[in-house]
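Figure caption, in words: inputs first, then the predicted bound structure.
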Amino acid sequence: MNVTKRTFDAVIVGAGGAGLRAALQLSESGLKTAVITKVFPTRSHTVAAQGGVAASLGNSEEDHWHWHMYDTVKGSDWLGDQDAIEFMCRKANEVVIELEHYGMPFDRTDAGKIYQRPFGGHMSNFGEKPVRRSCAAADRTGHAMLHALYQRNVRANTQFFVEWMALDLIRDAEGEVLGVIALEMETGDIVAFQSKATIFATGGAGRIYHSSTNAFINTGDGLGMAARAGIPLEDMEFWQFHPTGVAGAGVLITEGVRGEGGILRNSAGERFMERYAPNAKDLASRDVVSRAMTTEINEGRGCGPNKDFVLLDITHLDPKVIMQRLPGIREISIQFAGTDPIKEPIPVVPTCHYQMGGIPTNYSGQVVAPRGSSMSVAVPGFYAAGECACASVHGANRLGTNSLLDLLVFGKSAGETAVEDVKKSTRAHKDLPQEAIERTLARLNRLDTQKDGADAHESRLAMQRTMQNHCGVFRFADKLKEGVSKILEVQQDVQRIAIKDKSKVFNTARIEALELENLIEVAVSTMISAEARKESRGAHVRDDAPDTPERPNGRDDTNWLKHTLWFKEGNRLDYKSVKLTPLTVPTIELKKRAY
Amino acid sequence: MDADRGARLRRLRWHCRRALLELDLMFQRFWARVGDDLDADGEAGLERLVAMEDHDLWDLVSGRRETDDPQLRSIVERLRQA
Ligand SMILES: Cc1cc2nc3c(=O)[nH]c(=O)nc-3n(C[C@H](O)[C@H](O)[C@H](O)COP(=O)(O)OP(=O)(O)OC[C@H]3O[C@@H](n4cnc5c(N)ncnc54)[C@H](O)[C@@H]3O)c2cc1C
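Bound structure (flavin-adenine dinucleotide present):
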């Protein structure tokens, strides 16, 4: 079958913060640039980000990129690449001020400078004391960022393909990426986008878990497409969990609730955090609180008929405080937990929040994969940025507000590198390999013609439950092993999903089935990578790798100071070393991660 | 149901894919309850609702903000009840 072909200098998949920042670089340099997105750009998940974006501007008090770098390396539990981290922290001021010039309405100090707020993990003078480093636009930082970037792109003539879903990467026999194949939702048409540069900025895949703070759109499509095209996924065992998602719904209850005096209680009504963190108690760091909650649940002290959540209690607070300082929390609790928090505590569970791993890139935004004897060779024509990519700056654990920064810095640098590469190449577009297109068409055809297939809804639920129960906040060797065989079974079901609705126009059943085919790749890579990593590091915490004097926090630098690479073919794992040498400053030496 | 209306409703369903999980969940329940029974006025109201920015929409749905517009009020009410 022949599909229509459209030709561009560059094609970007994704119109969140990372995609829009990359697109701007390309369009403003005069290249013919297309952005493909499943939803209208300003409805991308970046809109949900409220906390802010990190930059050591030093507007409120003295700050330095080197301190920010130290915090990021430490936060990453030394799994982050120090060259990329230096690059990001040094570039932060530039990209934030650029955004200000694009019209981003940052909060301001009386003197008219960008106002900066404190945020967990931001410290001055190499971990000494908290510093105000987060720049925000009221509680709509992500939203304001997307609007500023979108307007600027419209001005630069970026061509948007809204409500189009990219299905697969087009990669030829030499391994060069030549574009993507995509589905137009409005018509059901399949179109090949031919390009000299293809940039993935498809966001995260938090929907692999049953309890997730991520919107439904976060289905890891970029990761699925990369994996099917033979590109490995890096460090997929590392997922950040937020301690307080509403049980059963996932909606995030901000840390501010505990800041105002909210208390976590188990089924006996006990304030259990006093046992785990006698000083900080309910305000201990995210991972400590999440693990304590999981231990309570695992040891039978959870609440509810299935004993599978704990309670966040604010009934002792003055209702006026709740209404004034915690607006929205009451409504969230009533809507999604069915309880009024003024009268009854809110059921909460640790909830998947952010994906640290992804498509491997270097700090120039080029996708890199092993080739010959080298572990990191650029894949020609292919770039990635944002939550779908792994640069790797977040390593085993991300610092709050570093993600929005990652979008800006690596969106821009992926764009810059792509501009250089496209301008350098004198060759015409290569022919598109028909086999690559046929493979996608066969996948679509299978979905449309499958008889007696599996149900997408049930398979998705099975995947999410398996991930939650076997690969959650706290991990156990036997559960992980069992999880691997279970998730591979679910994968088999996903391969034979059937849809009843065969219509062409906005066939949401087909779209959701295609999304599930991507999610399952992410789930399998996560489970297999997690089962294999026999240490605790950052967000990956194993019961059989506890805190000992030889291995602080269970971290095993002798054997595991390395990045995981998972390959779809044969579910093979490989490892590559962590870049411990920064660009200009000395290495930040390994230390126990303690706050 | 005629093919055009079917397509219109599926399109509306897709426009209920939002940036905020809160809204995704509200719309999910709404469709499970109301589904294809949505009447013409409801459809028109929903069309207008999904054209809003996510945070404004959530303010409306969560009761932080009110609207005087009867069509929007009625669809917001149905969303909250679902
Ligand atoms: C509730 C919440 C609060 C957060 N708060 C903060 C914060 O305060 N500070 C911070 O730094 N980080 C925060 N984060 C994390 C941060 O928001 C995200 O990591 C970041 O916004 C991801 O941006 P992105 O550009 O990579 O992807 P997204 O914004 O998710 O955009 C992905 C884009 O890809 C498109 N897309 C995906 N698949 C396809 C496909 N197959 N075809 C076509 N298009 C596709 C989508 O349409 C979308 O346009 C928060 C996250 C959550 C969930």
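The mean pLDDT of chain B is 92.
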